[in-house]
Amino acid sequence: MDRSLIAVFEKALGHEAVLTAAADCLAYGYDNSSYRANPAMVLLPVRIEQVQSAVRLARHYKLPLTARGRGTNTTGASVPIERGIVISFERMQRILAIAPGDRSAVVEPGVLNGDLQLALMPHGLFWPPDPTSAPYCSIGGNIACNAGGPRAVKYGATRDNVLALKAVTGTGELVEFGALTNKNASGFDLSRLLIGSEGGLALVVEATLKLHPKPAASRMLRALYRDVESAAEAVARLMAQPETPSMLEFMDATAIRLARDIGGADLPDAGALLMIEGDGDPAQLDALMQTLATHAGGAGCLDIAIPGSSDEQAQLMAARRALSPALRSLASGKINEDVVVPVSRVPELVRFVEQLSRDSGLLIVCFGHIGNGNVHVNVMYDKAEATQTAMAESCAEKLFTEVLRLGGMLSGEHGIGLAKRGFMAQAFSPETLAMMRGIKTLFDPDNILNPGKTLPE
Predict the structure, then answer these.
(1) I need a surface site. Which of 15, 20, 38, 351 has the fewest CB within 10 A?
(2) Max CA separation in the chain (angstroms)
């Protein structure tokens, strides 16, 4: 980047907030996907005014500006494919307020999810989104991708747990959406529009989060099944009854083996596994768990057990969270799709994936937040084999087509980014996409915010 242009940004934001050396910028050119593209400049603001200055300068010089949290996303959403500038929010990491009486917290976008949860513990509160990357992902990134996690089945994903946002638009204007109150019937709810927009509409600089009381008690069931289809049928039964589990996680046979051999969980071989958690009043927990166990049982259920201690439950949960990186021990290539379908259609999705694996000859490993109908479908292949690579990509295309046929969507929590952008025209009508583009133009008239992502050409 031209030295005189660098000087303009240094004058506006301060020398310490601007990185241009290739070695310094390298770490900001990738995320947890296979996409790579190094930025020409990295900006590290600490104040809202610096964010506004950065956006105004980027607009003036027609430079693409890609927002970044901690880069844990898996779709290439934070990769600066058009080079330009990355604006990282890692230094905006203050928890500005915790209001137990209002059950809310105000945070900057760089606050880590795990750090927020620790700060809330003395108040007996928690923020529900708990993705696998919770210890090191940022709240801003959670908002950008509408992150979920295991407990979204009962408490909702990010979009359900944000009260208000402050954000900087593509023109550098500071806008505020939402309210400090849980009830709000005043005007358009534009805060929900920004959540999941992957930094393409505006840059979130402050968020007011909706908190929940930490449950007084919780307990986990571990249910084993003869095959994946039996587990999927059990999920449909569990979600059709009145008692909502606080967690309903799924593993297929290969995922079970990885959770045991790599994650260290004490698990026997089985065709599938459900981790079912209930929480609430300790006096009512026994009855709740009996209800959940009754509906988890049935045809194809091999065993239902309660892990013997809190340590065993924690170990099983840790093994579940370790599954995604553990998959790299199976093959050099992985296409990870976090598709979501109505819960009643989960058995059909599972049958389709099993057939897809047989037809392609590729190992496909499934696990995920199945209580929401959110299944992580991992197509494993050898990167060095062109035939396998092409077959894996074909599997992804067929999967998306089937998911949409079942009334589902391309992503439950990872977002669209680069990885799924090409399929958006299948998921939405031309009229709907035209409206999305119109909204994008309203917020970002010069298309400088994270261009080339989410919406198709």
Answers:
(1) 15
(2) 71
Contact 274, 236 (CB under 8 A): no
CA distance linking residue 41 with residue 68, whole number of Å: 13
Half-sphere exposure of 240 (CA within 13 A, CB side): 13
Q: Do the beta carbons of residue 322 and residue 262 sit within 8 Å?
A: yes
| CA-based nearest residue to 255, from 312, 319, 332 | 319
How many residues appear in the chain?
457
pLDDT per residue as tens digits for the range 68-90: 999 999 999 999 988 899 999 99
Residues 6 or more apart whose CB falls under 8 angstroms from that of 417 comprise 33, 73, 75, 76, 77, 78, 79, 198, 453, 454
DSSP string covering 322-367? THHHHGGGT-SEEEEEEEE--GGGHHHHHHHHHHHHHHHT--EEEE
Strands of the sheet containing 162-169, edge to edge, are 95-99, 104-107, 202-210, 162-169, 174-178
Predicted pLDDT at 337: 93
The tokens describing 176, both together, are 């505020």
The whole-number pLDDT of residue 308 equals 66
Tokens of 152: 């979204």
Q: What is the pLDDT of residues 5-17, one digit of tens each?
A: 999 999 999 999 9
Strand partners, 220: 277
Q: In what order do the strands lie in the sheet with 333-340?
A: 301-305, 217-225, 272-280, 247-252, 364-369, 374-381, 333-340
**Encoding tokens for residue 100?**
């137990």
Residue pair 38/77 in contact by the 8 Å Cβ criterion: no
Dihedral in degrees, nearest 10, Cα atoms 248, 254, 255, 261: 140
> Nearest 5°: phi and psi at 442?
-60, -45
Mean pLDDT of 177-205: 95
Amino acid identity for residue 447 in this structure: N
CA distance 335 to 251: 17
Query: Cα separation of 97 and 101, whole Å?
Result: 12
Closest of 230, 251, 351 to residue 296, by C-alpha: 230
Long-range contacts of 419-428 (CB under 8 A, 24+ apart): 419/33, 419/35, 419/74, 419/75, 419/76, 420/75, 420/337, 421/452, 421/453, 421/454, 421/455, 421/456, 422/456, 423/397, 424/454, 424/455, 424/456, 425/456, 426/400, 426/401, 427/400
* H or E, element range at 219: strand 217-225
Report the alpha-carbon distance of residue 248 to residue 372 in Å, rounded.
8
Q: CA end-to-end span of the chain, whole Å?
A: 27
